[in-house]
Amino acid sequence: MVLNDLIQIKERELASRKKYVLRCCMAAGCMSSNAQSLKDELEKAVAAAGLKDEVEVRGVGCLKLCCQGPLVQADPAEILYERVKPEDAAAIVAALKGGQAKVSQGDLNHPFFTRQMSIVLANSGIVDPERIDSYIAADGYLALRNALREMEPKEVTDTIVRSGLRGRGGAGFPTGLKWGTVAKSTGTKKYVICNADEGDPGAFMDRSVLESDPHAVLEGMALAAYAVGADQGYIYVRAEYPLAISRLQTAIKQAKQYGLLGSGVFESPFNLTIDLRLGAGAFVCGEETALMASVEGKRGTPRPRPPFPAEKGLWNCPTLINNVETFANVPAIVRNGAEWFAGIGTEKSKGTKVFALAGKIKNTGLIEVPMGTKLRDIVEDMGGGAPDGGTIKAVQTGGPSGGCIPAGSLDTPVDYESLSKLGSIMGSGGMIVMDQATDMVDVARFFMEFCMDESCGKCVPCRAGTAQMHHLLSKIVARKATAEDLAKLEELCDMVKHTSLCGLGQTAPNPVMSTLRFFRGEYTERLQPDTLGRPGTESAVPAGSRAT
Amino acid sequence: MPLSLPKDRTKRVAAVMEHASGDKRFKILETHMKRHQYKADALIEVLHKAQELFGFLDNDLLLFVAYRLKLPPSRVYGVATFYHFFTLKPHGKHTCVVCMGTACYVKGADRVLAAVQDKAKIRPGETTPDKSVSLLIARCIGACGLAPAAVYDGTINARQTPESALQQLKGWLTNGSE
Amino acid sequence: MCAKTLTIDGNEVSAADDATILDAATEAGIKIPTLCHLEGVYDIGACRLCLVEAVGIPKLLPACTTKVVEGMNVRTDTERIRKYRRINLELLFAERNHVCSVCVSNNHCELQTLAYNHGMDHVRYDYLFPKWAVDTTHPRYGMDHNRCILCTRCVRVCWHVEGAGTLNTAGRGARSQIIADLIQPWGEADSCTSCGKCVMACPTGALFQRGATVGEMEHDREKLEFIITAREKKQWIP
Ligand SMILES: Cc1cc2nc3c(=O)[nH]c(=O)nc-3n(C[C@H](O)[C@H](O)[C@H](O)COP(=O)(O)O)c2cc1C
Ligand code: SF4
Ligand code: SF4
Ligand code: FES
Ligand code: FES
């Protein structure tokens, strides 16, 4: 494979495009509402109408408005059909050449679509994730070719540094800096790992990226491997994502056939093998040291850092580990230049961020917005506010490691620093909207239960602390707790946060602390008088003043 | 013969191997291990395959894997029980998975779960005594837009209510002991 | 080997290049409380009792796994650290069923001693009273899960000193437990060489000696062969 081959594939692919295209969402959300048989019916309807030469029925990745699935978009008319049933197929095909199909249509001019800015999801809903040619037609693998043939590894790293890209897996660590460290680490064998464990319950961005555009992730990994000098990559993906797994397997196979993975890629000395590793239902394996233990076939327990994976990772070799979305940004950055990317977003948070918008909100689905977009714009304009005349009470970001941002702070811009100032985090991109009916103490208890279940059990503060905090929260929810219990809870939050071994324990108290900060009243109103008859409201009862 | 083990163990391993030799699934598993060159780091991959073939991981199966990958049985057991995806007990005839991810939870998944629990009289992770239904919970199945979601025998169902869940259970349970 | 100098609780201390803070402190006669640390096996930084403060570093550092850095200024006994340690110990007591007065290890238990030393005379948290069993199937030793703090000292000596690989941690989170082989009763776990190292390693009364036993003088040749193969060939089943 050389540049010319890429160009030829692209031209061949574009030349074979038909006049009309029906893009059927084949990502997990729509697949769960029968998208496969819908696509089959559409194909039959096209054949029946004798339009096979004019109409292409293309399976694509996520079309974003998941709550209205299954979705079909008709081009070039740009009509988005919603909640399509297999019976609607003939009508949709008939309407291609004018006329109206009696199928509910989405408003593509709604802010939900118009305010999006696609970098990571640029190909989502457009290319066929199961055909590499479709990706190449969208300039796929061009960045890899240019890097391998025209750039030094260091230049690739420098490009990422200058772009200002930060990790999308949660912590927001500068990606270029990490690459530079791995590149500088000495060792004959190095690894790159793509973290596709997506553990946040209520987040499905990474899954959508993998299902919609798997080659972008592979290309990003290849660029990273070239930059740091690795020749083996692993993608650690949750076993709960069978569709993403099969699309990745297909993508790897096709890339190998084209010589885009393997040895001597683009006739350069660069070699890369990428293998899949399946997670097995452990949230903690999203933590990088636990993930590496799991790749090595062990119990996924984290270990203290340093040494960091960049120095001692998989089998003690220098290892680069990045999130799916981080990698998916890379080809576009290398293709369009660091300055282009750095021009998007805010001073310290560059580019866009993908969020999975869900919960008590009208439009649920996937959105990608520039960093710095106000939360209000996301939930009210794009999301359409709370359904059924409800009012938004809070927005939860960062999942079990994050916090609840109250409606009063909706004017906060979405960037790493602003969210952490509010006691939440960007996280991987789950955004759950809560309305007036949501009980915040119960939400805190819910997240604590999750952390307790998912604690690996290695270190004491997290293993025993989350259990004890969960017990205290359950007591408060059941109106059996006293002010002293609340004081104990707060003391434990502080202790677990500062003494746990890994990020799971260190962030487990966040949902409690943030709901206490903004919704303290919901806690105190349930407190009972203690055994000495002191009132249930918060009096100055110091914790531990009474022997039990 | 590299060494002799205490009699019981040798007997047990021999029994497992004997049993395995007559079962095609063990052969498939063996091929899978071979592809990974019987490497210890392939343990999780091998367990995935084993569960896919057998439905669950019983002690004989774990012993077989330990024997082939040359690992202490305690290591295999430790790994198999760390990951919730692996199950050491067989599931019932039907499975009901209620998503308890955040999106589903705020939309009332807890009430759906409670209804199922009450009706089937089992808790998550358990199977009814007549082995007709297993109840499981999931942490987000990626259908958050359709919350609350549940998976009945592998099929995702959107926008569940306690009533719709009970409706689903009815057929399963009446065929059973109730 | 070059040495490093650092300050621990105001004392100038020198330490070997690759020493941990715990090594350096121990050598200087400064006691840092530990539970999961065991001389002779590698450290895992799990109990979090040895956390110390270092000036200029916002995070607390586990002394047992943190290597010394030239010029570092360590504080091992600040009020904040003492408070965290105390909570940590209370959490351990409340987690399982530790009833010192009826424990075989009463008065020679590391957990109990640490509690005394930290003035932990009562537990403010509710005891969670999980149900755990006691395994007395082994002719010489017993395992009481109620008293286990999951420090994995037993697992590490079993694997890395004895080389038998009998014990391991199974499950996860608060439901983790120490198992023998395929969760067999310990007495039936035939990889166990009855060396007793785990019992010696256990900081609490979770693993205990069952008085003088009959089997004591029985030399088990097969076991010896097994352990040699296990260690040398990394092969645990023939
Ligand atoms: C408990 C825990 C769970 C995590 N889960 C994930 C995850 O599901 N996906 C992910 O990309 N990063 C996850 N992380 C963050 C990773 O440890 C790591 O920082 C990240 O993969 C680095 O990639 P990035 O720099 O591209 O963000 C998790 C961290 C912790 C502590
Ligand atoms: S903080 Fe929790 S998950 Fe992390 S090592 Fe400790 S017990 Fe395990
Ligand atoms: S049995 Fe003893 S040594 Fe083993 S983990 Fe439990 S407390 Fe530690
Ligand atoms: S939270 Fe239930 S599907 Fe995501
Ligand atoms: S002794 Fe350092 S963490 Fe346990």
Brief write-up:
The complex is a heterotrimer of chains A (548), B (178) and C (238). Chain A is α/β, with parallel strands linked by helices and 548 residues long.
Describe the model.
The complex is a heterotrimer of chains A (548), B (178) and C (238). With 548 residues, chain A is α/β, with parallel strands linked by helices. Chain A folds into four domains: 16-111, 3-Layer(aba) Sandwich (Glutaredoxin), CATH 3.40.30.10; 139-342, NADH-ubiquinone oxidoreductase 51kDa subunit (Rossmann fold), CATH 3.40.50; 352-438, Ubiquitin-like (UB roll), CATH 3.10.20.600; 441-524, Up-down Bundle (de novo design (two linked rop proteins)). Chain A is built from 23 helices and 14 strands. Chain A has helices at 3-15, 28-31, 35-48, 89-94, 111-114, 132-137, 142-150, 153-163, 175-184, 205-212, 214-228, 242-257, 288-295, 324-336, 338-342, 375-382, 416-421, 440-454, 460-477, 483-499, 503-507, 510-518, 520-524; strands spanning 20-25, 55-60, 72-75, 79-81, 105-106, 191-196, 232-237, 273-278, 319-323, 352-359, 365-370, 392-397, 403-406, 430-435. In chain A, the strands form three sheets. Chain A has a five-stranded mixed beta sheet with strand order 2-1-3-4-5, covered by helices on one side. Chain A has a five-stranded mixed beta sheet with strand order 11-10-14-12-13. Chain A has a four-stranded parallel beta sheet with strand order 8-7-6-9, with helices on both faces. In chain A, strand 3 and strand 4 (79-81) form a beta hairpin. In chain A, helix 19 packs antiparallel against helix 20. The model of chain A is unreliable at 539-548 (pLDDT under 50). A four-stranded mixed beta sheet of chain B has the order 2-1-3-4, with helices on one face. In chain B, strand 3 (150-152) and strand 4 form a beta hairpin. In chain B, helix 3 (43-54) packs antiparallel against helix 4, helix 4 (59-69) crosses helix 5 (73-82) and helix 7 runs parallel beside helix 8 (162-174). Chain B is elongated and about 55 Å long. Chain C has 238 residues and is of the alpha+beta class. Chain C has two domains: 3-77, Ubiquitin-like (UB roll); 86-232, Alpha-Beta Plaits. A five-stranded mixed beta sheet of chain C has the order 2-1-5-3-4, covered by helices on one side. A three-stranded antiparallel beta sheet of chain C has the order 6-7-10. The model of chain C is unreliable at 212-219 (pLDDT under 50). Chains in contact: A-B, A-C, B-C. Chains A and B meet through strand 10, strand 14 and helix 18 of A and helix 3, helix 5 and helix 6 of B. The complex binds flavin mononucleotide, iron/sulfur cluster (2 copies) and FE2/S2 (inorganic) cluster (2 copies). Flavin mononucleotide (FMN) is lined by residues 167-171, 173, 195, 197-199, 284, 286-288, 321-323, 326, 428, 502-504 of chain A.
